[in-house]
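hi! just following up on the protien thing from before. the input was this:
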Amino acid sequence: MESEFDLKHIGRNIKILREQLGLLQIELAEKINISSTALARYERGETEPKLKIFFRIAQFFGVSMETLISYQSVPH
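and the predicted 3d structure came back as:
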């Protein structure tokens, strides 16, 4: 069962990867075909992406899904 703490890690990792590419939330959202509101909720750890969205995010960044859920931050 995933806790709010786990969601914060996922969101933090998504945000770090997005910022490394110099993308705004709206730009990433458009690239992975979701709303910027949904992406903002993921990054804040308020909600978790559905599996197909989660996979799209990992695929876009070229990382494993395990990397996104890692308690350790992705490398800056």
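The helical segments are 4-20, 25-31, 36-44, 51-61, 65-69.
The longest helix spans residues 4-20.
cheers
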